[in-house]
Amino acid sequence: MTTSRTTGKQYATFWLGSGLYGVEVERVREVLREQSITRVPLAPPTVAGLINLRGQVVTTIDLHPRLAPIGHRSAESMLVVVLVGGEPVALLVDRIGGVVDVTDGQFEPPPDTLVGTVRELVSGAYKLDGQLLLSLDVDAAVAV
User: Fold this and answer.
1) How buried is residue 86: exposed, middle or buried, by Cβ count under 10 Å (0-12/13-18/19+)?
2) What span, in angstroms and rounded, lies between the C-alpha atoms of 93 and 76?
3) Going by C-beta distance under 8 Å and a sequence separation of 6 or more, which residues neighbour residue 53?
4) Burial code of 20-49, b = ≥16 C-beta within 10 A, e = fewer?
5) Burial level of 76, CB count in 10 A (0-12/13-18/19+)?
6) Which of 22, 45, 85, 132 is the most buried (most CB within 10 A)?
């Protein structure tokens, strides 16, 4: 085991509006192009609907209402399938970033500039070259 693995993490990153967010790589199952989403009547606005993922019905969460309410969803939205309680849940995002390595020394509590729901769904931030990576609390983000 190398030192960088014990003091750091890898994050799969994605964009919502102008914000760069990340989820720990261990939580990500796969990344998909947007698929046909079946709407669920009377579902909260954060539930985009359901997708069929190789025969398994997976709930799709739209992060826009809570994390990027201003602006429009990208025409090329994608899905990040994460594991929550051992079950897959798809997160609807604008576009995919890459996998980045971060160290514990780069981590800071959520910035004071984050307010409202965004602050509740972000566990902290990592300073990267010229940008801030917001660490998404997946469990809080999928709670409806």
Assistant:
1) exposed
2) 9
3) 32, 81, 88, 90
4) bbbbeeebbeeeeebeebeeeeeeeebbbb
5) exposed
6) 22
pLDDT of amino acid 68: 77
Residue 88: its pLDDT value, please?
A: 97
Radius of gyration of the chain (CA): 15
Compute the average pLDDT of residues 88-93.
96
Q: Are 42 and 121 in contact (CB under 8 A)?
A: no
Bridge partners of residue 126, in order along the sequence: 107, 133
Domains of the chain: 3-142 (2.40.50.180)
Longest dimension (CA), the chain: 50
C-beta of residue 74 within 8 angstroms of C-beta of residue 94: yes
